Amino acid sequence: MKWLRNLDSLVAVLTLLPSVILLAIFVYGFIGQTIQTSLTNWGKDPAQALAINPVLQFVGLENYKELFSGFIHGRFRQDLVNNIFFTVFFVGGCLLVGLSLAIILDRGPKGEGFFRTVFLFPMSLSFIVTGTIWRWMLQPAGGVNQLPAAVGLPEGRFAWLTSRQQVLQFDWNHLPLFTAWLIGLILLWIGISALRNAQVRRGWIAVGSAALLIGWAIFIGPRVQLLPFPEIHGFNLAFIGIIIAAIWQMSGYTMALYLAGLRGVPEELREAARVDGASEVQLYRRIILPMLAPITLSAMIILGHISLKIFDLIWAMTGVDNAPTEVPALLMYVTTFRSNIIADGAAIATILLLLVALVIVPYLYSQLRSEVRR
Amino acid sequence: MRKWLLALAATALGSVSLAQGKLEIFSWWAGDEGPALQALLDLYKKKYPNVEVVNATVTGGSGVNARAVLKTRMLGGDPPDSFQVHAGQELIGTWVVAGRMEDLTSLYKSEGWLTRFPKGLIDLLSYNGGIWSVPVNIHRSNVMWYNPAKLREWGVTPPKTWTEFLSTCATLKGKGVEAPLAVGEAWTQQHLWESVALGVLGPDNWAALWSGKLKFNDPKAIAVWDTFGKVLDCTNKDASGLSWQQATDRVVQGQSAFNIMGDWAAGYMVTTLKLKPGEGFGWAPAPSTSGTFMMLSDSFGLPRGVKNRANVINWLKLLGSKEGQDTFNPLKGSIAARTDSDLSKYNAYLQSAARDWKNNKIVGSLVHGAVAPESFSSQFGTVMEIYLSSKNSRAAANAAQAIADQVRLGR
């Protein structure tokens, strides 16, 4: 019996081995190599950049320090800000549009199947196709701007993809201050709600850390200077067109997720709520939306990692070298394959990986834990 | 010793056109430029019928995609036999300093090219005592295009200096021309900058900028950005959404008066828009740059360790020959790098450009790879962005100098 079990596990190991080895080399090995490259000076000396056997020197975290504080790397910092604004608006927009569409379709209008296909269809296109179509439609003198003229209104004049306006501006030097305030307030809220639920230890830890952060933000934060000069970043309005195109493409998918969730809400529950005298609005607010929370989380994770890695859509819509609509993924390409500064490109890639990991790893962790529990 | 003898034998065989084997030519000439390349390849086939010519083209204007593919091939140890590259620092700063190219000085001597190509051009191709590629064609960067009929209608003449340009711009704005100067996406704005810089600095200081003798944050170089800012006020606001062709269209259609673009714009207007040089469109050197020819050139070199070395040398000989250049250039819409080409094969614009090529002072283009390595020119977009978002000449100049220091420009 014991022997059989050993054979069983031997077969299991042998079956898994090829994919484990391939993953180890082609995913984790190359991630490791990228991180290693980002700690060298590859490409800083043009003579070594593309030499047959480049002589590389280990420089530690110098490249990262430069990216976050160097004078000429302001473009990277703006790209990072762009990407974060893009993620917030894109994920928010997709969730909102997707949920609305799902609720409408869930109420069973005529031709539901038809509309479901129509809304889901953009997802089958590649971002390059979407980008090209929307690029044409958002031309300053074309498509969308001509729409009002069709009903006799003056033509639109908004420069969808070419605007150089920036809103929500802030100084990069204030970033730690804002971050401390934000995280401090969130922790405070977590702590207070934990105390209310009589989770004393957890509550005090959260409140304590919140007090520490907020105290830092009040007393030390205002004097912190990341850069020796003020550097203004903000949300580039040229991104609005790209956000619209991205939402157009992905909201159908979000709708499908939500629709599946809505269909999973048992009819009895709705009936019971109605019998108890809940209005339709209350029904959604108190019963259905809370039950959709896990779906919202999954959708946020899936959309979030798409938007942090966005590359092809922007490439197709505004090109690879258009600074107002640039994101770190594009800058990585330009830095590595055009400027030949391979170490900086690797550092940008690593930062992107960390950002995506920040979104995905907690999710995977909670998924794995719940699977084990089962 | 045996290897050396073999190489000698192969070269000898090549000269009696018994060359065999393969020749892979890597370029970004597709679409409109495809026929010109094909004519060259056909000529090669005629001379060396036993060589199998492989045309490896990666599309994308100015080689944007081809250069990335080339880098992966070179790093992967699979160099094409000969590849297209902008002559000058784009080749030198990337491939020559990395020790990947062979010196072609002996070829230049044996073919007598040292006297056939202008000295200014040879200087731009040289580095560390060697000459590193064979230029096939010459384009001019500092040309201002206009629509003669519209200029007559508005009652203005092409301005000779940037000061004159700004007053012409004010006149035209007064007549309701919203954007007297047409520009397009990011690189065309950099293209405009190099003409402004050449005009403000003059050819000697322009060259000094790239040899490191003149700093970007020198007051003279900062003044370039001041003028550039004023010139930008004359341009269209939807620029970054337009390709260079669409920017040229604005001039042809009379929405704008001028456009500063390389002379491939002439090819576009003659071939695609069917306009007659001198009637449908007119041209002049960019303001304040008369007497200077800011050139860029496509060239081919000899990578180290290629499989078909003798065939590549034959290819390079063909590229540098009068026959090769006069076959390629009329079709491509450029002029020959040699000064003895047969002008009767070229159209009116190209004839005038060829005359300037012989008489003008020659300087190299930044955007198109002649004077600065890729590590600088591709980061110049960052400098431009700093200027466009802050309109601060000093900040842009400091950024340019910081990048120049980082990439060891001129050293």
What does this entry look like structurally?
The complex is a heterodimer of chains A (374) and B (411). Chain A has a two-stranded antiparallel sheet with strand order 1-2. In chain A, helix 5 (112-120) crosses helix 10. In chain A, 70% of the residues lie in helices and 3% in strands. The two termini of chain A are 27 Å apart. Chain A has one domain (76-373): MetI-like fold (Orthogonal Bundle), CATH 1.10.3720. The model of chain A has no long low-confidence stretch (mean pLDDT 88). Chain A is globular and about 75 Å long. Chain A has 374 residues and is mostly helical. With 411 residues, chain B is of the alpha/beta class. Chain B has two domains: 2-139 and 295-364, Periplasmic binding protein-like II (D-Maltodextrin-Binding Protein, domain 2), CATH 3.40.190; 140-294 and 368-406, D-Maltodextrin-Binding Protein, domain 2. Chain B is 51% helix and 14% strand. Chain B contains 19 helices and 15 strands. Chain B has helices at 2-15, 34-47, 64-75, 89-96, 105-111, 113-116, 119-125, 148-154, 162-174, 186-211, 219-232, 244-252, 264-272, 309-320, 322-332, 348-359, 374-377, 380-390, 393-406; strands at 21-27, 51-57, 82-86, 126-127, 130-131, 134-135, 137-140, 143-146, 181-182, 258-260, 282-285, 292-296, 298-300, 335-336, 361-364. A five-stranded mixed β-sheet of chain B has the order 2-1-3-13-6, with helices on both faces. In chain B, strands 14-7-12-15 form a four-stranded mixed β-sheet, sandwiched between helices. In chain B, strand 1 (21-27), helix 2 (34-47) and strand 2 form a beta-alpha-beta unit. In chain B, helix 18 (380-390) runs antiparallel to helix 19. The longest helix of chain B has 26 residues, at 186-211. Chain B starts with a helix and ends in a 5-residue tail after the last helix. At the A-B interface, helix 2 and helix 15 of A face helix 3, helix 4, helix 18 and helix 19 of B. Chain B: It holds the Pfam family SBP_bac_1. Chain B: Belongs to the bacterial solute-binding protein 1 family. Chain B: Residues 1-19 form the signal peptide.
